[in-house]
Amino acid sequence: MPLNRHLSKGRDLARTAGDHASDMFAPLTVIGRGMRHHVAWAKSRWQATPKDRRGPTVFLVAAMLLGIYLLPHGLLFALVALMASAAWNGRSPKAPAGPPEPDIVDVKLTALYAALTPYLASPDDLSPLYHHEGGYKDVFGSWEFDAEGRLSRLELVYPAYFTDTEPAARARIEQVVQGKAGRAREYRFDWDEESNRLRIAALAPLPTDIAAQRFVTTPGEIVLGFTDEAGSARTIPVGQGGAVTQQPPVVWRTGPRSGEPHLLALGVTGYGTSSLIRSIALQALPHGDLVVIDGAGTGEHACLVNRPGVHTVETSLHGALAALEWVAQETERRLTALNAARHAGAAAPEDVTRPLWLLLDHPTELSELAHAEGRPDPQDLLELPLRHGRAARVTVVFADDIEARDRITPTVRATTRARVLLGPTGPEESYGTLGAPLDIVPAAHAPAGRGYARIGTGTPVRLQVPATVDPLDEEAPAQLREAVIALLPHRDTRTEAAAPVDVPPRPAGPPPVPVAEPVQQPQAVDLGKEHAPLRFRPLA
Question: Considering only CA atoms, which of 281, 377, 417, 262 is closest in space to residue 331?
C-alpha cells in the first residue's frame, strides 16, 4: 500500500476520533463554560460589595449552605441545580474573535505606494519597481512614524528613467507624498540623483513666540528671522517665552563688502511682509538712517514718523517720487564724496559713511498709479541706488505681494540677490522668487511670518520672522506692541509715556575739531537748479 494512502487513512481516523471525542465531552465543555461564568459573576459581585457588608454576606452564605446540608437529599438537589444552571449559562459557545485591527503603518504605506505608482511606472519597463500588483516593501527602504501615527521619515527608490532633474516632475511626487503623509506639516525632500533615491523627512515647526528685540549682531548684520539647526551655522541668545534660549538665525550681511547688498521680499497677503520691513527698520535705526515708502497707504509704518534717523515716511505718489529723487541724488553725492576722499588720501566724512536704508513696502501699487497719471515709474528711480548703493552705503529693501512679481522691473530683480518668500506658495512661485528649486514643501496652513530665505547663491532655508506688530494697532497683543515701542529711538506721546528709552543718543553732527586747524565744513546737498528743495512731511 502506498505511503500516501497510509497517511490519508491515518488522517481520517484521527479526524473521526476527534469528532467522537468532542461529541462525548461536549456536555462537560458546556458545564465547564457555565461554571466559569458563575465564578466570574461571584467574583464581580464580591468586588462590588462594600467592605462593611462583606462579613454579613459571608455569614448568610454559610448559613444557607448549612441549611442545604441539613435538608434530606439537600446536597444532591443543590448539585443538580448547580449543574443545570451551569449548563444553561454555558450553552452558547464562545463568541468568535473579531478580525484583527489593520496595521496603520501597512495601511498608510500601501496607500502611498498605490498613489506613486501612476507617476513612477512605465508600460515599457519589463521589470518595473512600481506596478499595481506590487508591494511597498520592494521600494521603501526604511520608514519611521511618530507617536501619533504620522509619517516622519521615509526613504524610497525610484526608476532610473524618472525625470528627477525637472522641477515639474519633482513637484508632482512631492505633492503626492505630502497629500498622503499629511498637509499640516512641512517635508524636506532630498533627491539623490546618482543612486535614484528619495529621502523624505518631516520638519518640526519653527518657534512663533519670538518677539522683536535687540539681537546680538554686529553693525551691518540684519536678523531676518530664525530657522532650524540645519539652516544656520550659529546660534544667538533670544528672549522667548520669558526665558533666554539659543536659536539659529538667518543673518543678512549688508555694507560695502556684502555680496548681496539689497533685499527682495515677496509674500502672500497677510503673511508678514510689512512686519519684516518693521523688523529691519528697528535693527537698522541704531546705526543708520531710514527713508520709508508705504505704497499701500495703510499706515503700517506710522510708528516711524518723526523718529530720530527717519528722514520721511511717504504714502502718496508725489511724496514717494520726491523721496526717491532725493535718494538718487544722495547716492550720487556720496559716491562723489567718497571718491574725493580716496584721491586725497583722507578719511571719508561721517555723513557719507553712515548707512542709508531705503525701505519700500508695496511700491508696485505706486507704479500702477504713476502709469495711470502719466508720471515716471518710481521703480525707474531705483536704478542708481540699486547699482551703486553698495559703494555709497545705501541699502534697498523691496517688499511686495507675490501676485505683483510680474510687475517688478528687471533692474530690481537683477540687483536684489537676497530673497525672502513668506506664506505658502506653489513650486513655480517659489522658483521664480528664490531663483532655485525649493526642496521643502510648505504646509497647507502656516502662521504669519513663515517662509523661506535665500542669500545670494546659497541654499534656501526656512524662515520665521520675529513678531514685529504695528504698535499703533490696538488689536495687536499689548506685549508685542510694548516690545516694538521699546526699540524705537525715543518715546512718542501718541503711544507711550514721556520717559526716555535706554537707547544711545544720535550725534547731532560731526565731532568737534580742534581750533588750531580750521576745518572746512561739508557743504549741504545740492539737488540741482531745476529741482525745488525737498521737504519731508510727516504722515498725517
Answer: 262
Q: Which residues of 496-522 are buried (b: 16+ CB within 10 A; e: fewer)?
A: beeeeeeeeeeeeeeeeeeeeeeeeee
**DSSP label at residue 390:** T
For the CA atoms of the chain, what is the radius of gyration?
39
For 513, phi then psi, to 5°, come to -115, 140
CB atoms within 10 A of CB 117: 16
Is residue 363 within 8 Å of residue 295, measured between CB atoms?
yes
> Which H or E run contains 33?
helix 26-48
Contact 252, 263 (CB under 8 A): yes
CB-based contacts of 206: which residues, under 8 Å, 6+ apart? Answer: 226, 227, 228, 450, 462, 463, 464
Statement: residue 536 has pLDDT above 70: no
DSSP H helical ranges for 236-344: 273-284, 317-344
Q: Which helix (H) or strand (E) holds 169?
A: helix 167-181
Beta strand ranges found along 66-213 (DSSP E): 140-145, 151-157, 186-192, 197-203
345: left (phi over 0), alpha (psi -120 to 50) or beta: left
CA distance 442 to 464: 13
Q: What mean pLDDT value characterizes the chain?
A: 84
d(CA 535, CA 540): 15
DSSP string, 212-237: S---S--TTEEEEEE--GGG-S--EE
Count CB-CB contacts under 10 A for residue 135: 12
- Residue 84: how many CB atoms within 10 A of its CB? 12
pTM of the predicted protein model:
0.73
Instruction: Give CA–CA dist 281/302, Å, rounded.
Output: 12
At 293, which helix (H) or strand (E)? strand 289-294
- Beta-bridge partner residues of 251: 223
Reported as a single tens digit per residue, the pLDDT across 310-368 is 999 999 999 999 999 999 999 999 999 999 999 998 898 988 999 999 999 999 999 99
Q: Are 473 and 494 in contact (CB under 8 A)?
A: no
State how far the Cα of 321 lies from the Cα of 536, in Å rounded to an integer.
Answer: 12
End-to-end Cα distance, the chain:
113
Q: If DSSP codes are grouped into helix, strand and coil, which group holds residue 249?
A: strand
423 Rama class: left (phi>0) / alpha (psi -120 to 50) / beta: left
Answer whether 284's CB lies under 8 Å from 355's CB. yes
Q: What angle do CA 272, 275, 276 make, to 5 degrees?
A: 90
- β-pairing verdict for 140-145 and 186-192: unpaired
* CA–CA distance, 179 with 181 (Å, rounded to integer): 6
* Cell of residue 266, nine digits: 515677496
- Residues with Cβ within 8 Å of 15's Cβ and at least 6 positions away in sequence, in order, are none
The cell numbers describing 535, all together, are 521737504
Per-residue confidence at 407, pLDDT binned at 50, 70, 90?
A: very high
Which residue reads 532655485 in cell numbers? 436
